[in-house]
Amino acid sequence: MRRALILSGGIFHDFPATSAFLxxxxxxxxxxxxxxxxxxxGLRALTGVDLLVVNALRWRMEGExxxxxRRRWAYSPSTEAREALRRHLREGRGVLAVHTAVICFDDWxxxxxxxxxxxxxxxxxxxxxxxxxxxxxxDAHPLVEGIEGFExxxxxxxxxxxxxxxxxxxxxxxGGISQPLLWAREGSAGRVVVDTLGHGLASLxxxxxxxxxxxxxxxxxx
Length: 222
Known about the structure:
The protein is of the alpha/beta class. The protein contains seven helices and eleven strands. The protein is globular. The protein starts with a strand and ends with a helix.
């Protein structure tokens, strides 16, 4: 049986619930699923994992605001963990990065290169959690084929630092600018899907969003 590993955990989000949702979705794709909050051990043990899902908020957590959480949740991937992820992609295995994944691993610039964009402290932002109407570029990719615009309760991650030319599959508006919220990348380094939606179950369980995530998993496994 093919395997999926979900890296989970962090602050200000119900990661146990959202990771359980993603795990159930992966099982519907016929995958054997493991969920872990031990990101270091998970990354080091990627051999044999067909799909890596990053549904976590783990970074160095510098600054006074994050001092209460730093001891438990701060994380920087080791050299070995970084190489394991590179090898995972070189071998043609997929990565699904959900919501806060673009904030993770802030001292590893290559993570942003792999995703195509990353959170930039002092520039990136999002409006308060609320109802968001997203627009779908339904002709752009099989992930969104036949799906029209829909509403979710979520956050519009905005003004990310783009590391590559992205073809947005879903966009939302903030600051008078269309913000890419979902994109897929394919190249010599493997397949990657980034979905910056997914703050909570209220977003993930919207039928259109759930369908897109299921398609993303299948595409990453193909």
